[in-house]
Design a protein that fits this description.
Blueprint (H helix, E strand, L loop, with lengths): L1 H19 L9 H19 L8 E2 L1 H8 L3 H13 L3 E4 L3 E4 L4 H25 L2 H19 L3 H18 L3 H21 L9 H12 L3 H18 L12 H5 L1
Antiparallel strand pairs: 1-3, 2-3
The structure holds zinc ion.
Zinc ion binds next to helix 7.
């Protein structure tokens, strides 16, 4: 499907334009496509940053009015977000922000363990001083966001850090896969995260950068394993509301 490639390209463009001060320039696909891409990014960010809460209804007509585009356009964007599991489409109810289940949360982190740790040696071998510097800048922004209590922004910056690492591996399909996993993780963190102990501590990220710079591959892999485990452990996914308690086990 071309959508993820488009998303990655648009993200790269945004990053590049931010980094170099260049403007995005006219897209090959024309204004309509570009406008839709912007709307897609805006809705996606609002979900990941928890400004749109899990379960919130996303009415096509209301969104069409807010963004000044057709309902058909909005529908396509919502379908795209549904493919990324950020939006859930229900036949009569329409679209709503996904509410990740505990099982999904565990699976997402298991997938991240498998893929992100495998990529670390590749990152370590390809990392250039400028890459390390850019990663440090992200880690610093994340720390500042945490300090000033901007939780959503910190979650977003955390995800960006992991995405950037994946891109540095040089494997685009895997980087795109990780980008999706990170989006879903951000939603999971927003739902199950504890505001006092929020996912990635940027102090951790600085340590990881240092290991990568020093070429300590094995230690960096072990570090990433511990890091992802720690994030998962910080989630309050132990006590499920929906589960029927096993009364005989509790009182037996
Ligand atoms: Zn992290």
């Amino acid at each position: 499907m071309a959508t993820s490639a488009n998303a990655a390209t648009a993200q790269d463009e945004r990053r590049n334009s931010k980094a170099s001060g260049r403007s995005r320039g006219a897209g090959k696909a024309g204004d309509g496509a570009e406008r839709h891409e912007t709307i897609y990014q805006q809705i996606r960010e609002a979900i990941v940053e928890h400004r749109l809460k899990p379960g919130a209804r996303l009415r096509e007509d209301a969104l069409a009015e807010v963004f000044g585009v057709s309902r058909t356009g909005i529908r396509k964007i919502l379908q795209r977000l549904a493919l990324e599991y950020l939006v859930t489409l229900t036949p009569r109810r329409g679209a709503s922000v996904s509410r990740p289940t505990i099982e999904e949360a565990r699976d997402v982190f298991a997938a991240r363990q498998l893929v992100e740790c495998q990529l670390i040696p590749w990152v370590s071998r390809r990392l250039k001083p400028a890459d390390a510097k850019a990663l440090r800048t992200l880690a610093t922004s994340e720390r500042q966001a945490l300090r000033s209590g901007e939780q959503s922004r910190a979650i977003q910056l955390s995800a960006q850090f992991h995405q950037r690492l994946a891109e540095l591996s040089g494997n685009t399909p895997l980087a795109e896969f990780i980008e999706r996993l990170c989006s879903r993780s951000s939603l999971i963190l927003a739902v199950y995260g504890d505001s006092g102990h929020l996912g990635c501590e940027s102090h951790d990220h600085d340590e990881l950068i240092a290991l990568l710079e020093a070429g300590k591959e094995e230690r960096a892999v072990a570090f990433m394993q511990r890091h992802l485990k720690a994030i998962e452990a910080s989630l309050s996914i132990e006590d499920s509301v929906d589960e029927t308690p096993d009364l005989s086990a509790i009182f037996g």
